[in-house]
Amino acid sequence: MKRTFLKFALAAQAVSMLSFAAPVAAAEAYPSKPIRMMLGYPAGSGIDSVARLVAGRMEKTLGQQVYIDNKPGALSNIAAMAVATAEPDGYTILFTPNSAPVANVHLFKKLPFDPVKDFTPISPVATLGFVVLVNPAKTKANSLAELTAMLKKNPGKYSYGTGNATGQVAGALYTHLAGVDALDVPYKGVPPAIIDLIGGRTDFVMADASLAIPQVAGGRVKALAVTSAERIPALPDVPTMTEAGLPDYDLWGWFGIFMPAKAPVEITRLLEKSVKETMADPAVVASLRKIGVTPWLGTSDDLAKAVVTDTVKWGKIIKRAGIQAQ
């Protein structure tokens, strides 16, 4: 009888130990398969270039492939929704500009997700400014002041291209503060907007610096101003919007990584650590600065705070620019 009881006790203890060890082993095994990084803009866009650089470096620390899944449309809402409804197991993550969790709250009357409740912040990645570009072969403006004068002389005649939420807000804020009337032509990404600018189908473009810089270097477009409060090191001779005659104009965006809500803490911490190591890598830093992107070494808490504070900030900017929610 005692021997039988002892057998049952040992068996129960073994089962208990196995059941306790199972989740620990599962957590330690992450990641055991490739990780999908969702992106709300097309391949070849500025954010796509940054995401691929970051994903490639994260693979070294995670020991698994991190591949980009481009789902362009609705100013990144499609990609964000795909992540918000995914399993919070660490195998579907969102690489997004501040549009989805911040600006889109004010640009859309109703979002298909809650920017705070439906996501787990992982880490900020970088910040970047935007650049006002013109085609020197078509537009003779050599400064923002000359572009403004041209637009004022012919209200409603000219158009400008945008390829993301920040670009749209940057363009609307410029036309509002400068007191000019120009048509915003939205594209699914900045590259097609620049193609149409070079082809003479639009008159200027609000482009993120990562795509503007190589085009400016190639001489196919001319940069008139940058939207951030400080000049971009890769474009040292291009003035800020404030320096170019628009006081208090300061607009820049950021990139961050999120997971679905209720993600396991051990997985979020592992991903946060991977991003932190990536953004501290000198090779990554050098590559980003070369295209006008500034690494943001922050924490998941920093990103969570940015979503809350920037939602208020961007609400004021969007209202100031006179943009109506669609």
Automatic annotation (TrEMBL):
<keyword id="KW-0732">Signal</keyword>
<feature type="signal peptide">
    <location>
        <begin position="1"/>
        <end position="21"/>
    </location>
</feature>
<dbReference type="InterPro" id="IPR005064">
    <property type="entry name" value="BUG"/>
</dbReference>
<protein>
    <submittedName>
        <fullName>Tripartite tricarboxylate transporter substrate binding protein</fullName>
    </submittedName>
</protein>
<dbReference type="InterPro" id="IPR042100">
    <property type="entry name" value="Bug_dom1"/>
</dbReference>
<comment type="similarity">
    <text>Belongs to the UPF0065 (bug) family.</text>
</comment>
<dbReference type="Pfam" id="PF03401">
    <property type="entry name" value="TctC"/>
</dbReference>
